[in-house]
Amino acid sequence: GQNIDQPTEMTATEGAIVQINCTYQTSGFNGLFWYQQHAGEAPTFLSYNVLDGLEEKGRFSSFLSRSKGYSYLLLKELQMKDSASYLCAVSDQNNNAGNMLTFGGGTRLMVKP
Amino acid sequence: DSGVTQTPKHLITATGQRVTLRCSPRSGDLSVYWYQQSLDQGLQFLIQYYNGEERAKGNILERFSAQQFPDLHSELNLSSLELGDSALYFCASSDQTGGGGNTIYFGEGSWLTVV
Q1: Does B89 contact chain A (CB < 8 Å)?
Q2: Could you count the other beta carbons within 10 Å of the beta carbon of residue B6?
Q3: Which B positions 15-74 lie with beta carbon below 8 A of chain A?
Q4: Are residues A70 and A32 in contact, defined by beta-carbon separation less than 8 angstroms?
Q5: Is B106's CB within 8 Å of A96's CB?
Q6: Per-residue pLDDT tens for B13-45?
Q7: What does residue A81 show for φ and ψ, rounded to 5 degrees?
Q8: Which of A48, A90, A100 to mutate to test the interface with B (most CBs of B within 10 A)?
Q9: What is the b/e burial string over B19-32, where b = at least 16 CB atoms within 10 angstroms of the residue's CB?
Q10: Backbone phi, then psi, for A56, in 5-degree steps?
Q11: A7-53: per-residue pLDDT in tens?
Q12: Do A41 and B99 touch (CB under 8 A)?
């Protein structure tokens, strides 16, 4: 099974930097995803990490440490439109039948002026 | 627009009834996934199909069932509905059956309200 933990809520100021952490425990690991979800809308893909290190994509970066079971999503130059939930999801390598992503509860980020 | 299409977008029905939610995956995608998201809850994996066959099953109730048709569209059937089944049901698709780099793309969801 899998256990994924991330903070429930975070608040940050427009223009600032925020880091959203995610820890996971899994019997097999085959990659970690971050998704953004605005209220009542579909989750949209942000990033994917399978190797240790930092993946940078514009204002968003994602970091992974497999030995620590830890990832973070870094958002720079925050904009009001970044107010959303950020979902950490882990792909389980032992699920031979398919790519079953297990999602954490999500971190609701509120960006204030 | 992810390319995954779900219908209906909104549905209100009474307890005890049965509904069917429909999903058309992105063009070329063989895998379809169903997720349930209750109010202020995380995404709960229900079931996955690949090219017409069930491949993985999560926390799906016995009152719920799904299938994937030869044209790759999928339907999620919810029966004997209870108030607690009110949720946003997402369909997602991907082009593979496995592999961590296999990103899944979500549809806009079907809002189900049971009254």
Answers
A1: no
A2: 21
A3: 31, 33, 35, 41-45, 48, 50, 55-56, 58
A4: no
A5: no
A6: 999 999 999 999 999 899 899 999 998 678 999
A7: -70, -10
A8: A100
A9: bebebbbbeebbbb
A10: -110, 135
A11: 999 999 999 999 999 999 987 788 899 999 998 899 999 999 999 99
A12: no
Q: Which chain B residues are Cβ-neighbours of A41 within 8 angstroms? A: 108-109
Among B55, B114, B49, B105, which residue's Cα sits nearest to residue B75? B49
Q: Which residues contact A83 (CB under 8 A, 6 or more apart)?
A: A109, A110, A111
The number of CA neighbours under 13 Å toward the Cβ of A6 is 27
Phi and psi for B104 in degrees, rounded to 5? Answer: -105, 145
pLDDT per residue as tens digits for the range B84-101: 999 999 999 988 655 456
Please state whether beta strands B110-114 and B10-13 pair in parallel, antiparallel, or not at all (unpaired). Answer: parallel
